[in-house]
Each structure stands twice: as C-alpha cells, then as structure tokens.
C-alpha cells in the first residue's frame, strides 16, 4: 500500500551529504540539494574525472578518488550507483553509528544496505518517480513523487528532504516495490520505446529520418500528456479504439501485417489494453459498449490469425 508521508513535524535534514556516484541521478540530486541550501561535501565516482566534473557544480564539494573518503565526509551518504553496484559498494565501506545511508533504486528496498545497518548506520531508499537523463535543473524535482522506505526518524527526515526539493514524498510497502517500479519503467521506458516504434513506422510511411520523425511526433506526445493532466483517465483516451472504429483498426492491422509484421503483436496488445479505458469512457453508451465488445472479439480473432488480411 502507498501512503503519503506525514507533512509534520518538519525535522532538520542531516548534513553534509556525500554522493557516491556521478551519473545522471547523482548530478540531478546534487544540483537540487545545493539549490535547496543543503550542503554537499563530497563526490566519488569510479572515474575521478566524472567526480571532479560534478564537484565543480557543487560549491564546497570535494571530488574523492576513493569511496571511503567520500563516505567518511557525509552524515547522509547517497549511493547513486547502478542497482547491481549497490550491494558490493555498501559492503566494502566502513559505516558508523549515527550515519545515514540511502540508495536511489526503485525496484529494491533497503535490504541492499544490510552491511551498513549491521554496522549501526540508519538505512533507507529514496526513489524519485522521474527520469533525469542528464538533466540537472532543480525544477525537474518539483511535483515529483518520491518513494521512501526507512525507519523513523530517518523516514521523516527523508520526507522533509524531498519537500525541500519541491517533491512529494510517499511511503511504499517494500513487498510492492517491484510492481511499483514496473509501473515507473512502463511509463518512462515504455513511452520511449513506443516513440521509437512510432518513429520507425513514420519513417517507413514518409521517408523521414528518425530525428525528423521524432520531431513530428513530439507535439502529439505533448498533447497526450496535456490531456492526461487536464482530463485524466479515461477521458484522455482518443482514437479508433475509443470510438470502436473497427474499420480503421482493420486498415492499421493490414498495413502492419504487410509492412512491419514485427510490430503487429505490440499494436494488438496496446489496442487490447485500451479497451478497459474505452469501456469506462463509454459507460453510459450501450451502443458504444456493444461495439467495443465486438471489437474485443475481433482483436482476439485477429490475434489467433483469423480474419486478418496479409
């Protein structure tokens, strides 16, 4: 179960902060911390030049050549490294009582930080529901949901930290972290993959190169996000499935089967995923609901290969 973190009281935030990692997430967090008036004392990366590049953007931060040096300089230590590197990095470091260590992974909880907990440090997970991809704008944190897992008082402290960044903290049942992260990956990475598929289809249909195809698709993608924000679900769903327009869908399926059969299964799966939203939107329209039922039957038969022209 997901619950919003309590907004009171607002505790002091443990400082200074040390960043172990200098990639996109570490950079986005470090710049936002400094903008929020939180001291960052040290940065470490496997490549010293990366740590140095980030440290130059964080006044007072020292680029360290060894992770222990960076960890020792922090009251709050952030392991902003790939998920697979968290356990070995945590295990190789010496931790102290009163120190706090967190990671930024979404699919895993603080069990990855067991060596630090055994040494007396407080541990937690702090995962922003956002993709940064090299962005280092503190405003990128505004309104972002942050999943927090920790024991009090660290959980309350991390919630306060999220709010200082302009984010919205919430607590998450550790058992549900994989499902939560699947939702995040589907929304972020899945949308990127769909844009790639759409750009490929547009290229085949028009001859546009990928960069131009993506540029042509961006206003459409932005419009979808605006509709989601302003109208919500299911009203943001538009298009032939929402209209139960089987004739158009038949043309789509025939074209895909002929030109790009590798994307046909994806198209059908997405059309089927739209059906519950379309039914919800048409809840008071019996004629539309009947048409959607017929459309669902047709999609099922199309998946089995019946009635599909090739």
TrEMBL record:
| Residues of the DUF2520 domain | 145-273
Gene3D superfamilies cross-referenced by the UniProt entry: NAD(P)-binding Rossmann-like Domain, ProC-like, C-terminal domain
What InterPro entries would the database entry show?
6-PGluconate_DH-like_C_sf, DUF2520, NAD(P)-bd_dom_sf, OxRdtase/DH_put_Rossmann_dom, TM1727-like_C_sf
| Highest taxon of the lineage | Bacteria
Q: Where does the record place the Putative oxidoreductase/dehydrogenase Rossmann-like domain? A: 13-128
Short name of one Pfam family for this protein?
Answer: DUF2520
What protein am I looking at? DUF2520 domain-containing protein
The beginning of the lineage is: Bacteria, Pseudomonadati, Thermomicrobiota, Thermomicrobia, Thermomicrobiales
